[in-house]
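Please predict the structure of the following assembly.
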Amino acid sequence: MNFNPTPRILMGPGPSDAHPRVLQAMARPLIGHLDPEFVQIMDDVKGMVQQCFMTQNHLTFVVSAPGSAGMETCLVNLLEPGDECIIGINGVFGRRMANIANRCGATVHKVEVEWGKIIEPSMIREALNACSNPKLVALVHAETSTGVRQPLKEISQIVHDANSLFMVDAVTSFCGVPLKVDEWGIDAIYTGTQKCLSAPPGLSPVSFSERAVKVLENRNSEVQSWFLDLNLVRNYWSGAKRAYHHTAPVSSVFALHQALSIVLEEGLESRWERHHSVHNYLKQQLEQLGFSYLVDEEYRLPNLNAVFLPEGVDEAKVRSQLLHEFNIEVGGGLGAFAGKIWRIGIMGESCTRNHVNMLAGALGEIL
Amino acid sequence: MNFNPTPRILMGPGPSDAHPRVLQAMARPLIGHLDPEFVQIMDDVKGMVQQCFMTQNHLTFVVSAPGSAGMETCLVNLLEPGDECIIGINGVFGRRMANIANRCGATVHKVEVEWGKIIEPSMIREALNACSNPKLVALVHAETSTGVRQPLKEISQIVHDANSLFMVDAVTSFCGVPLKVDEWGIDAIYTGTQKCLSAPPGLSPVSFSERAVKVLENRNSEVQSWFLDLNLVRNYWSGAKRAYHHTAPVSSVFALHQALSIVLEEGLESRWERHHSVHNYLKQQLEQLGFSYLVDEEYRLPNLNAVFLPEGVDEAKVRSQLLHEFNIEVGGGLGAFAGKIWRIGIMGESCTRNHVNMLAGALGEIL
């Protein structure tokens, strides 16, 4: 059947453009998922994921499914029926965590704020005080539906003072903005590959602290998912014997290996700085065109720009023109913001001044 | 980090060699997962999966994770706590189904036979009679751990006479041996991409009959997995509105599109015939070398050859020599057969006389 997808400029909420090295890695002939060379590649990937998460966590690996499955991996392994947990909700992905935690049989205490705002530390403290035995507190570091960057360090301290686990969604922040798993005391974290890492979507790097591993090892019930059961998966990724669990997505892991290598060649700090400076460049141009930001400057993600369009502009029409006349993809709003905002991503390989100039030029033509 | 995997000849239980068109599809620049062109590609893939399953089932799509997640998708959606099900076990994958069904809170009646044998229709009839309200019967069509091809048609009738759903694991049979979902009355089926389809591992095509959809729509409890919940995923793959669920693994779907196209260009019947005739070619050479088959001729899979080695041969040593001296991968035994058999795959692009001759030539040198 005919297959000829049009090349696009990807400036939505992900996937972002992939580096040619990453694309070429996927075109490599396959090797077996238990081949000693593949096991070495898995080890390399694990080491590089640890570096990018800034963690020493031994239980660090990659879930063979997209970011949402990483979210589910964290929750189904750490929660059991009857457990209490606290979930911060200020967008689509906090809501999703609450939905999954509920399916784990946990009692979910929601800390909800207006979309586009952060969860304040005091709110988490209050929620913890109102709980009898809170096992886990989960927050979204970079809410992809609103472009909010949630401060984590102060809340982490509050969570640990209450003897709870601190879980974080880092899908859109990983390798784009500062994220320090060990320094910030994060116990469980998951991310995706198709944002600031600029690998194809489909995998979810995750990491668990020793505290989280202890909780996992002391479960009373079996993990409800076989595919995501860390007791099984960890032996495939880290066991001395490499017990077969499932067939790893070999080509996607090849791509991930190259994407992580590219991040570390650039250096995390330089990469964060690049996202920051290209964000400023984009912001200036967007504001000149009449766009305005949803999120207060202090809490804005540099890489995911949630913006209101200039007065009177038909967002769906212009977004379609951008795609069809200029091959540029930007994202529309999700959930409460559908039809109301755009989400402009400058992530990984899509985070260059050239990308910004292409977008600004096209918008100048259309508007 | 250094990335230079050695090209291998893949003749194990999967992945198999991929066609250059498939590899090149993955090297295409990414497009957005909600791009109209990607939606068209998803529609094409759905249509081609229907053709390859030989089904009209509307609820046919591709799970964004490997075959084991396809298995879990079928079970978590069709079973609820307290349901009774019957699982045929004659190898690793039947055992895995029972494990997952158990995690769904179902009462699992196991029909177990010696590994390497088929499940007889009479055994399923007896198990159904012994059950008060059997909701589902699950069998493995092609047991990858033993090379057994399980006859399905007669059992399907027995299952439906008892008003149960018939679920089938077709990971290793899909596009390699006859498999007729509608004609055989299969209600839920899953497969993988890395066997006779010769795409990279990581995705799981699935299909559900109208009967299965009714069961799904009449559940009393929520599906325990959010990621695998068909009520959500179906709106992403088939809904008029294409509700965002997760980010599809774009590049892997590109590869799948090309792999399915190649299958349909060859034609299913021709492909089955090719696997059959190359199997005979392989069998002759293996028997000359002193190998003998585990499974009775009548129930042998042509594409996955489970064989005992010639007397006195150190299987692990020879397997390692094949890999390191000839870059040929064959599979070792799993579970009860670890260290005892080899599993030689001739699947998809790895199913050629040239592959057989490379293997036979190398074995002739080593033995």
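The two ends of chain A are 38 Å apart (CA to CA). The mean pLDDT of chain A is 97.
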